[in-house]
Amino acid sequence: xxxxxxxxxxxxxxxxxxxxxxxxxxxxxxxxxxxxxxxxxxxxxxxxxxxxxxxxxxxxxxxxxxxxxxxxxxxxxxxxxxxxxxxxxxxxxxxxxxxxxxxxxxxxxxxxxxxxxxxxxxxxxxxxxxx
Amino acid sequence: xxxxxxxxxxxxxxxxxxxxxxxxxxxxxxxxxxxxxxxxxxxxxxxxxxxxxxxxxxxxxxxxxxxxxxxxxxxxxxxxxxxxxxxxxxxxxxxxxxxxxxxxxxxxxxxxxxxxxxxxxxxxxxxxxxxxxxxxxxxxxxxxxxxxxxxxxxxxxxxxxxxxxxxxxxxxxxxxxxxxxxxxxxxxxxxxxxxxxxxxxxxxxxxxxxxxxxxxxxxxxxxxxxxxxxxxxxxxxxxxxxxxxxxxxxxxxxxxxxxxxxxxxxxxxxxxxxxxxxxxxxxxxxxxxxxxxxxxxxxxxxxxxxxxxxxxxxxxxxxxxxxxxxxxxxxxxxxxxxxxxxxxxxxxxxxxxxxxxxxxxxxxxxxxxxxxxxxxxxxxxxxxxxxxxxxxxxxxxxxxxxxxxxxxxxxxxxxxxxxxxxxxxxxxxxxxxxxxxxxxxxxxxxxxxxxxxxxxxxxxxxxxxxxxxxxxxxxxxxxxxxxxxxxxxxxxxxxxxxxxxxxxxxxxxxxxxxxxxxxxxxxxxxxxxxxxxxxxxxxxxxxxxxxxxxxxxxxxxxxxxxxxxxxxxxxxxxxxxxxxxxxxxxxxxxxxxxxxxxxxxxxxxxxxxxxxxxxxxxxxxxxxxxxxxxxxxxxxxxxxxxxxxxxxxxxxxxxxxxxxxxxxxxxxxxxxxxxxxxxxxxxxxxxxxxxxxxxxxxxxxxxxxxxxxxxxxxxxxxxxxxxxxxxxxxxxxxxxxxxxxxxxxxxxxxxxxxxxxxxxxxxxxxxxxxxxxxxxxxxxxxxxxxxxxxxxxxxxxxxxxxxxxxxxxxxxxxxxxxxxxxxxxxxxxxxxxxxxxxxxxxxxxxxx
Lengths: 131, 848
Ligand code: SRM
Ligand SMILES: Cc1cc2nc3c(=O)[nH]c(=O)nc-3n(C[C@H](O)[C@H](O)[C@H](O)COP(=O)(O)OP(=O)(O)OC[C@H]3O[C@@H](n4cnc5c(N)ncnc54)[C@H](O)[C@@H]3O)c2cc1C
Ligand code: SF4
Ligand code: FES
What we know:
Oligomer: heterodimer
Structural class of chain B: alpha/beta
Order of helices and strands of chain A: HEEEEEEEEEEEE
Radius of gyration of chain A: 15 Å
Largest sheet of chain A: 4 strands, antiparallel
Helix content of chain B: 25-40%
Distance between the termini of chain B: 69 Å
Bound molecules: siroheme, flavin-adenine dinucleotide, iron/sulfur cluster, FE2/S2 (inorganic) cluster
Shape of chain B: globular
Number of helices of chain A: 1
Helix content of chain A: under 10%
Strand content of chain B: 15-25%
C-alpha cells in the first residue's frame, strides 16, 4: 500500500517544472541561488541570452552553499563556474569538477519559457511561494 | 671497527661544515670514525647572511647543517666545547671540558675572531663584536634600551654592523681610522661616493679618526668614544668591527707553522706543516695570505676532502672578487681593482649626482680587462668579472661597458653571458661553471632560477651570481625554442602590464570590449577580476556598475569578505587606527544588533564576522549612519595606514604620525591595485607602527620623514627599502602618488610591491630614478592619474545603498527572502562561531 501511495505521489509531481525566477533576475554571466523546499539550487546564466544552467548550490570542497556566487567563464571552451571559496572549477553542463573529476555537482534540467526560468526536479517538494 | 681511521674536525663553521658535507657526499664518511668538535652551541649556520638575523630570520632559518644528516652518517658531534691543545706527539686533542679526542687525521676549521683594537675601556658594558648569533642577540637586547650606537671600523663588516644598528632604530655612527670607507675594496673617489650614499641614509661617517678610549659613565656603561685628536663622540654602545684575525692559537702552542699575518700555513693540498693536520677556511694561510670570504674556504674544503681520499685537487689561491649590497648600496670589486699591474690604465666614471662610481682597469693596449670597481650601481659586475676572469677580448671602446645604459646607441653593458666559455665559473660560492648550469637546464628541463638553485646550488651562497643565472636561463630557453610568456591566462595573450596599457590607450571601459579586441573565449576567474581591477584603477567607476558585477570575485561582488561557511565579514575603515569612543560604541551596537562576532584585526581595526548576504546592506546602512566608510578589506586596494601614537602623546615622537597616517589613508583609500596595499606611519625611529614591513611606510625623523617602499609581512616577509630620506609631507605625497601609480601600471596580477620590486630590473636605483628624479618623464602623468582616482572617490557601500538595482543582488534567494538555513552558529567564548559541517550536516541533508 505504501509503495502504491508513493507511486501515485511521484506520478503527480515528477512532471512539474518549477518556475523559479525571471531570466532578467539573473545578471548576464552571473548566478543566483534559489530555494526549492529545503533544496538550494544555483542558477547560472552564461552570456546575455537564455543560456542557463541549474546545479546544486553546495560546494563539496568547502561544504558551504556558495556555487551561485562563483565567477562564470570557460576553460578551453567548456562553460564553467568557479567556487568562490577555494576556486575549483565545475563544468556547467555536467557538474563535473574540472580540477578533480572524481567530484561532481548535481545538475538539474532547466529551460527558459516566456522569460521565466524553470527547473525540473525528480521529487518536487512544495514550492515556496514568491513573496 | 677499531681499524677505522679516526678523523677529528675542529670547528663547525661554514667551511668545517662544507668539508663534512663533501665527505658524506663522496662516501668518505663511512670508512672513517669521525668526530666534529665545535665551540658554538649549534651546528654551522649561514654566517654570510648573519645580518638577516635582524630581518627576523631565526637561528633555525640560518642553519645550513642538518643534525639528522650528521647522525645518519654516523658522525659524532660535540658542541659547546673548545679545543685548547693539540698533542701532536700522541695525536690527542684536549678540550676545555677536559675531554680528550684521539685522532689519526685532524682538520682545523677554526675560522677567525673579530679584531678588537687595544683601546682603553674596550671591555665596558655596551661593547660588542659582530660574528656569531650570540653576538647579535646581545646587540639586539642592549640596543632596545639605548638611542645611539657607534661602529668601530668602516670596512665591509663595519658597514654591515652599522646597517644593523640603524635598522634597530639607533642614531648610528661609523668611525674609521683610514681616510675612507672600505679602504681595502675601493679607492678614494669610490670611497667618497660610498660615503655620500651612506650619509644620505642617515648614518654619520667619521673617517681618519683613531679611537683612543671608550669612556664609561658612573654605571660602568659606555658613554662616549674619545679620539686621538682630542675629539669625542657621545654614544651608548660600541660595536667593534675592525677586521678579523685567524684563530690559529692551537697551532702556535704546538709548533705548527704560522703565516706572517697569522693563520696555519698550508700547501696546495691544504696540509699544514704536519702532514696529518690540514687547515681550511679563514684560519688557513696560503702563500702568505688569509682569505676572509667563504668561497675560497669552500674551495679549500673540497681540496682537503679530495686529499684524504688520495685525490689530486689543488688550492692555488683565489681571486678576492666581492660584490656586496651594503645598506642598499652596491659595492663590487674584482681582479686588479687598484691597477697595481705595471702599465695598467684606468677608465672611470664618477657621477656625484646619482652617487655612482665605476672604474675599469685595463691593459696598456686596452684589450684586456685587468680589474675594476663599482660603487652605487653594480649591475654590470657579473658580466665584467667574467670578462676579466676569462680574459675575453674587450670591445674597441671599453668605456661603453660602464656607461649608463640609458644612452641609446651605446653598446649594451657587458658582452653577455653568451660569449662565456663553458668552463667560466659562474657561482664561485659553490664552484658551479657555466657548462654545469647549462647542462642542468637542458637535462632536467629547468625553467626557473629557483629550480637552477635547488638543482645545482648555484646562487644559494652570497647571491651575487643570480643575475647571471637569470641571463643564462633566458638564453638557454631561447635556444631550446621555449618562449617565456607572462600571458594573463588562456583568454588573453598579454601580460597585465600590456592590458593596462591597452585599456588606457584605447579608452577601453568594459571587459567585453577588451575581450573582443584583444582576447578570446568567455574569460575566467583569473582574467575577469584582473581586468576589473585595471578598469577600476584607470577609470575609478563603481565596481558593480555596468555589467561589472560578474567580473568581481565574491568579496568584491558583495563588498565583504567571504568566510568558510559562506557568511561574510565586514571591516569598516578606521583611518590611521584612530577611533573615537562614540564610534567604538557604534561598532558594538551594530555587532549586537545583527549578532556578529567581533575581533580586533592585525591592522588596527575591527572585523565583524558572520553576516549573511541579506544582512550586509542593513549592517552598512547602520555603519554609514554612524559615520563609517567601506574599509576595502574585500578588495585588492588600499587597506589600512597603521600608525603609532606619535609626537602628540609619546615622549619620543618627533612628528604627528597619527595625523599623517589619517591623511595618507584618506588620500589613497579606494585605490584599486594589482594586489592589496598596506601602509604604516611611525612617529620616530623606534618604529612601533612597523612601517618597514609595508608596501609604503613612513618613519618620522627630526627633519621630516623617511619614506620606505616595497616591504611585506605575510608569507615571505621583506624589509622595505628607503626611497627618500628627510622629506617634507608634500614630498611624501608626491612620491607616494608616483610610486603607487607606477606600481599599478607595471605590476603583474596579484604581485605585491615586494615581489614586483624583486623583479624590477635596475632595483632601487631605478625605482628612485623614476619616482624621485622622474627619469622616464612620466611623473606628472602618474600624479594626474592618482589625482583622478582621489577626486572620483566615493564610498562603495554608500553608492550601493543608494542604488536599488545593486541592492537586488543581496537577496538570499532569487525566489525567497528566507534567511539561508545553511548558516548555523555555535556559542564559543561568549560569542559564536560557524558550525562545522559535521555539526550541522544532519539538518541540512534536504538542502543538498
Ligand atoms: C582579518 C585579518 C586577520 C585578523 O583577524 O587580524 C586578515 C584576514 C585575512 N587575510 Fe590577512 N588579515 C589581516 C591582516 C593581515 C596582516 C597584518 C597587517 O595588515 O598589518 C598581514 C601581513 C602584512 C602584509 O600583508 O604584508 C596579512 C597577510 C595576509 C596574506 C599574505 C600576503 C602576502 O603578501 O604574503 C594573505 C594572502 C593573500 O593576500 O594572498 C592574507 C589573506 C587574508 C584573508 C583575505 C584570507 C581569505 O582569503 O580569507 C583573510 C580575510 C578574512 C576576512 O574575511 O576578513 N593576509 N594579513 C586581518 C585584517 C586586517 C584589516 O584590518 O584589514
Ligand atoms: C657579518 C658577516 C658578514 C659576512 N659577509 C660575507 C660575504 O658577504 N661574503 C663572504 O664571502 N663572506 C662573508 N663573511 C665571511 C664568512 O662568513 C666567512 O668567510 C666564513 O664564515 C668562514 O668560514 P670558516 O668555517 O672558516 O669560519 P667560521 O664560520 O668562523 O667557523 C669557525 C668555527 O670554528 C669554531 N672554533 C674556533 N676555534 C675553535 C676551537 N678551538 N674549538 C672548537 N671550535 C672552534 C668557531 O666557534 C666557529 O664556529 C661574513 C662574515 C660576517 C661575520
Ligand atoms: S593568517 Fe591565515 S587563518 Fe589567519 S586570518 Fe590570515 S589567512 Fe586567515
Ligand atoms: S657566487 Fe655566491 S651564490 Fe653564486
